[in-house]
Glycosyltransferase family 39 protein (Kaistella pullorum), 536 residues
Amino acid sequence: MTKYLYILMLCFTAITGFYFFLSWAQLPPGQRYIYPIDDVYIHLALARNFAELGVWSVNISGFDSASSSILYTLLLAGLIRLFGDWEYYPLLLNVVFGYLTVYSVYRYYKDFYGSTELKWAAALILFFPLLYVMVLIGMEHTIHMFLMVLAVYFIHRNVKSDFRCKDFLLLLTVTFFLSMVRFESMFFTVSLAFALFLRKNYLKGTLILVAGFIAIVVFGIISVQNGGFFFPNSVMVKGSYPAEDHIFMSMWQLFENGILLNVSFYKCLFFPLVIIAVYLFEKYRAARLKNLLNETLLIVVVLTSVLHALFAVLMYRYENYLMISLLLICIPIITHLHEKYRKTELNKSLLKILTLGSITAIVLISIYRFGYHHLPLTYMSKGINSQQVEMSRFLGKYYKGEKIVANDIGAISYFSGVQLLDIVGLGSTDIAEEIVRNKHLSAEENAFKNKKFIVEYAAKNKFKVAVIYPEWFPGGVPDEWIPVATWKIPEPYGPARQRIVFYALRSEEEASLRKNLMEFDRNPNVKQEFLNKVTK
């Protein structure tokens, strides 16, 4: 079966390498490689500040937990501490863990199944969960996917060995590192502990909870002691959780938004869950229901998926660790059901139609996701280079060390050396606290209070310039902020918006901002347009 490993490795290398060089080729001649998304540079800025200054922030002072991956930021900080600052550590780590993920998928099917499952893996494993895309964007998601593959492997092995000590210690280790790579792994920890409690393995379930939460609790205590949230800013700002005063209505809204009316749920999770449901029905409809409690692996993956859909973001890239784990357990089910239906005469049974329809949907979704990401992967780096990296060059030249308001903070924080106020709240705890405080208010009241807080905070702390997407400012950009110029890029890929606006926050800053923009030797791909004459 080694040939399937070679096929998997070759496909992974060819597709990842192709898009790496295709993306790089879109940049100006001689330009270094730029990551397709801006968030990588948030990790790099935070890791560098922690390695060099002992500061957990994208700024050179304070405590602002902009990263939702303790492990990834610590890995980057360790590399910077040992070998010096280098912007391509994320790419290096992702390539290494990409290959480890491919190898782990191969070992899972080699050790527990056979060549039929490996054929399916060769066809789908890169495209359904977008492994090659995760490698190229340079974030922590490749490590997350690798650890989830290991988690599926060791749960399977533990079930077969009845959780013998050596196997269980390996599962504990994977659980510990999963908890550090992304905070959504709490859903996995709770699901695995629950599945062990169903097996009446209470001690082992408790140990899983300890392994899965110890790093989170330690980090949370350190964060609170330094004036932050227990969880990172990104988790608090982006996460979904019920309001304390309307908990039942909020729970329904979570179900409605996370599952019932969530298109991403149907694209990413629904059809694998249908296949699992058909398999369980076929297997246990004539058996005692309590036997279902021993399906530990299925319980863990399904429950993790449901919890994530309810309480976290199920789009962009955050869903792919679920998709690879669902695919891992669905492929053996597909081969099993195919063999069973091939021998049955019930060619038009409802279960067979559901299974074949779901398999077809998974294949079509894989093709769709591959095609959909072709243009973004090709041009996102060019877009980030034209907007975010260019903004960082401008700010680094004219405003280094100064106080700047922004909303896409990655490249700015890593390259420019400014002191940032992030209106989204990821890199600014004070803003994040206000956003979380107002999260369950009406949209109008939420926008009004957030806007008021940002305007007063920026004025009180003497911020000079804002470089933002006006559409992102809650309640609209304040009238007292003076719009000076816009930058617009032609690429609709990479940055969240093609147009950014430079604002002078005080009238005395307007003339100098205009002068700096006129003097700056900007990328010819960026169209600059001035908006006002200098205020008298």
Summary: The mean pLDDT is 93. Strands lie at 403-406, 419-422, 465-468, 482-488, 499-504, 527-530. The first helix runs from residue 2 to 25. The CA atoms of residues 329 and 431 lie 42 Å apart.
